[in-house]
Design goal:
Structural class: alpha/beta
Number of helices: 15
Bound molecules: xanthosine-5'-monophosphate
Strand content: 15-25%
Strand order of the largest sheet: 2-1-3-4-9-8-7-5-6
Number of strands: 18
Helix content: 25-40%
CATH topology of the largest domain: Rossmann fold
Number of domains: 3
């Protein structure tokens, strides 16, 4: 048994996934569940990160029996701090809070850092730090800002690291986790998603739905497309795919969707025009969470109505794991955003939910798409949030703002594609900032809108780096927007990483 104790980090499941990819089945448990575990059967334990401070009243803690065994332990971020705190070290608010990239220098030759260069780039996300390490431990890495970036009690095989090896932006993170697995006495074996996995998923859906009917929320994005195709393969005509044109979609999206799913896959797709309904629901709403809720509610109302017409008892959604975790799906996680496709289901709804991709990350979904031999256009489709352009308009949504944003966004997409950058980026899009600034157009004063551009590099939705787009591409985007969208006088580029900034502005 290999355990991951979840203290509420956004990336606990990513740790689980990384360990799974090394061929080791593992279980995520809460600190409460840990109390009941028989540690004789446990080969290794990872303590996750979390949003709390160990010294705060009510912060999640770990049963002291953990330190009475010979099981190897790796504490990550909060996990490190809990080790230090429980063993009489000291954890204090850091002089400098760190969010994003940091350099570490490895000291000594701990097996945890085997095959890792002495200096490397890691991803940090913490406010507290270990200011005094517990007896029996030594510092095995420092960063530019903290002396105890990693600590070890080699005799006991207890380790703590302040950075996140599970995030792709941490160099050699996979090597570090693989080293820890070896320290636990297990030989890691890299695992891959296969056609077999996909066949199993289809069989699972067939079994769950039986002779029942399903409706499927189709948005055109890779997640809902893959979910729809999986269900289509499982139950064929018993699936009705519903596409709701909320009016919050990007340029030409509805037309493209009709082409792919109706004409290419001959799927049973219903395209509904609900633009006015959504605009009405969003009238006067400025709070991002309220927008999500209003959109979610409108979606669900329409689905319920359609479901009744088709006699469906199942609702299939393309929810993926980051949607679940970022909607605080686990006990100690703090709420970042309530993604509409997780948060909005009312209890009265009679539909059972089928979410075949609920445990997958985006890159895994793309792998499933290519194993299903879907067109590359879909396999590589960049993610687009369920609430659509509404969460890229700061402030109240209106038809006019949507039109300005849609035109600007299409230009960003076009120029990024022309420059051959599309596939290198997680997303590239425009934001309607709602900030009016002074400009000059044709020798006259122009008080116009500000459009922001966001282009992001990421391998999953948990961490991201703003993309180093060549100046001439940024310039082409800027010039085209102010020329082709007359309401806009200013274009700015967002240079924020995640964390602390999320990808979407709302
Ligand atoms: P954030 O902004 O949370 O975005 O860093 C991470 C990824 O999730 C997408 N996103 C959403 N997707 N409903 C969705 O279906 C939402 O409410 C939502 N908010 C963000 C975002 O586009 C990015 O790919």
């Amino acid at each position: 048994m290999f355990l991951i104790v979840d203290f509420g980090s956004q990336s606990t499941h990513l740790i689980s996934r990384r360990i799974r990819e090394l061929g080791i089945k593992n279980t995520i448990i809460t600190p409460d569940e840990f109390e009941k575990i028989n540690l004789n059967e446990v080969k290794g334990i990872i303590l996750s990160g979390g949003p709390s401070s160990v010294y705060e009243p009510g912060a999640p803690t770990i049963d002291g029996k953990l330190f009475k065994t010979s099981v190897p332990i790796l504490g990550i971020c909060y996990g490190l701090q809990i080790i230090a705190y429980k063993l009489d070290g000291k954890v204090t608010p850091g002089k400098k809070k760190e969010y994003g990239p940091a350099n570490i220098t490895i000291q000594g030759d701990s097996p945890l850092f085997a095959h890792i260069p002495q200096t490397c780039n890691v991803w940090m996300s913490h406010g507290d730090e270990v200011s005094k390490i517990p007896a029996g431990f030594a510092a095995i890495a420092k960063s530019d800002t903290i002396p105890h970036a990693a600590i070890a009690n080699e005799g006991k095989k207890w380790y703590g690291i302040q950075f996140h090896p599970e995030l792709v932006h941490t160099q050699f993170g996979d090597v570090l986790l693989s080293n820890f697995i070896k320290i636990c006495g297990i030989e890691p074996v890299k695992q891959e998603l296969t056609k077999h996995t996909v066949t199993d998923m289809i069989e699972d859906i067939k079994e769950s739905v039986g002779t029942g009917k399903a409706i499927c929320a189709l948005s055109g994005g890779v997640d809902s497309s893959v979910a729809a195709l999986l269900v289509h393969k499982a139950i064929g005509k018993h699936l009705t795919a519903i596409y709701i044109d909320s009016g919050l979609m990007r340029q030409n999206e509805t037309e493209q969707l009709r082409e792919v799913f109706k004409n290419h896959y001959h799927m049973n797709v219903k395209i509904l025009n609900a633009k006015q309904q959504f605009l009405k629901a969003l009238k006067g709403v400025t709070d991002p969470e309220k927008k999500r809720k209003a959109i979610g509610k409108t979606f669900i109302t329409i689905f319920e109505k359609e479901a009744k017409k088709t006699g469906a008892t199942f609702l299939v959604q393309g929810t993926i794991y980051p949607d679940v975790i970022e909607s605080a799906g686990t006990k100690h996680a703090s709420k970042i955003k309530s993604h509409h496709n997780v948060g909005g289901l009312p209890d009265r709804m009679k539909l059972s939910l089928i979410e075949p991709l609920r445990m997958f990350y985006k890159d895994e979904v793309r792998k499933v798409a290519s194993l299903l031999e879907m067109p590359t256009e879909i396999v590589n489709r960049r993610p687009f949030p369920g609430p659509g352009l509404a969460i890229r308009i700061i402030g109240e949504v209106s038809e006019k703002k949507l039109a300005i944003l849609r035109k600007s966004d299409a230009i960003v997409k076009d120029e990024i594609k022309k420059a051959g950058l599309e596939l290198k980026l997680w997303q590239a899009f425009a934001i309607f900032t709602g900030i009016k600034t002074t400009g000059v157009r044709g020798d006259a004063r122009a008080y116009g809108e500000t459009i922001a551009i966001r282009a992001i590099e990421a391998a999953d939705a948990m961490s991201a780096h703003w993309a180093n787009i060549p100046y001439d591409v940024l310039n082409a985007i800027s010039v085209r927007i102010v020329t082709e969208v007359p309401e806009v006088t200013r274009v700015v580029y967002d240079i924020s990483n995640k964390p602390p900034a999320t990808m979407e502005w709302e």
